């Protein structure tokens, strides 16, 4: 596997700092947080950004993320399509393979089949854009109860319904646990359709109470990381494993120190 730092983990740091911190901590690559990317590009070009990555020997693994892509009104959906065009164009300039995309909220009364159909329709349309730039879409389900796609089982069904090489999955350990996904679902995955594994841990709280701010560095909480990692190894997954944590307490730490702590925590749980 290749190991990455996700820009959400160091949310208050700049993109330039993320690149340097990832390099000094020994990560192979970085998942770019889109808001930081837009700040950087206000005063720099994508060519300058590509040079910065190359100079530090850090790969670009993804841009995170296009949010709430499904169940949108026409104006909001038009904005989603434009955002996809924008980020895919940038990704192509950076040789970045993936754009992370996230499903929308669950409409009142929506059925399982309606969720599958809407998600597949939107992913098809976004994939048309992504493929024109030689970019892939990494679809990430969210375990919170208001999300339209809460489990690996449903996300897998959607990706299989789409049936395109340019559309695959993100599994986030926090959302996997919070949404009640079953580890046996990993065993049936095609590893080529699993693009990114977001790894993190969580405080010991009831699942229904868990929020992103309760995430912890890998190995410091109660998530079944060893079970998940073993399942990934059994299907020969060798893609990106990225530390993604939304914890305001961590954002107050020095980003270089935090990146090193994240890399050591990742080493510990992957042994």
Describe the structure in your own words:
The chain has 271 residues and is an alpha/beta fold. It is built from 11 helices and 10 strands. The strands form 2 sheets. The protein has an 8-stranded parallel β-barrel, surrounded by 6 helices. The chain has a two-stranded antiparallel ribbon with strand order 8-9. Strand 3, helix 4 (74-94) and strand 4 form a beta-alpha-beta unit. The mean pLDDT is 97.
Spatially, the strands of the biggest sheet line up as: 1-2-3-4-5-6-7-10
Sequence of secondary-structure elements: EHEHHEHEHEHEHHEEEHEHH
Shape designation: globular
> Fraction of residues in helices?
40-55%
> What structural class do you assign from the helix and strand content?
alpha/beta
Q: Can I get a quick summary?
A:
With 271 residues, this protein is α/β, with parallel strands linked by helices. It has helices spanning 15-25, 34-41, 46-56, 74-94, 112-132, 152-162, 173-178, 184-187, 225-234, 248-251, 255-270; strands spanning 2-6, 29-33, 59-66, 98-101, 136-140, 167-172, 194-199, 201-202, 215-216, 240-243.
Topology:
Layout lengths: L1 E5 L8 H11 L3 E5 H8 L4 H11 L2 E8 L7 H21 L3 E4 L10 H21 L3 E5 L11 H11 L4 E6 H6 L5 H4 L6 E6 L1 E2 L12 E2 L8 H10 L5 E4 L4 H4 L3 H16 L1
Parallel strand pairs: 1-2, 1-10, 2-3, 3-4, 4-5, 5-6, 6-7, 7-10
Antiparallel strand pairs: 8-9
Helix pairs in contact: 1-11, 4-5, 5-6
């Amino acid at each position: 596997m290749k190991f990455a730092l996700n820009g959400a983990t160091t949310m208050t740091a700049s993109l330039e700092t993320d690149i340097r911190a990832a390099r000094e901590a020994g990560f192979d690559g970085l998942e770019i947080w889109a808001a930081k990317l837009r700040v950087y590009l206000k005063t720099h070009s994508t060519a300058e950004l590509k040079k910065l990555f190359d100079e530090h020997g850090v790969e670009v693994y993804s841009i995170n993320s296009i949010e709430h892509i499904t169940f949108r009104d026409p104006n909001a959906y038009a904005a989603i399509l434009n955002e996809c065009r924008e980020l895919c164009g940038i990704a192509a300039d950076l040789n970045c393979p993936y754009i992370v995309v996230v499903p929308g909220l669950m409409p009142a009364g929506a059925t399982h089949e309606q969720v599958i159909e809407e998600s597949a329709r939107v992913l098809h349309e976004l994939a048309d854009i992504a493929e024109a730039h030689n970019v892939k879409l990494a679809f990430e389900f969210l375990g919170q109860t208001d999300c339209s796609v809460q489990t690996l089982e449903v996300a897998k069904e959607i990706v299989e319904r789409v049936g395109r090489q340019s559309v695959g999955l993100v599994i986030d350990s926090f959302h996997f646990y919070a949404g009640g996904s079953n580890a046996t679902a990993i065993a049936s995955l095609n590893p080529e359709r699993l693009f990114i594994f977001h790894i993190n841990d969580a405080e010991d709280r009831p699942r229904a109470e868990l929020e992103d701010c309760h995430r912890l560095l890998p190995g410091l909480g109660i998530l079944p990381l060893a079970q998940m990692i073993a399942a990934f190894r059994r299907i020969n997954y060798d893609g990106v494993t990225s530390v993604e944590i939304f914890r305001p307490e961590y954002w107050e730490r020095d980003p270089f120190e935090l990146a090193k702590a994240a890399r050591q925590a990742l080493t510990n749980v992957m042994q």
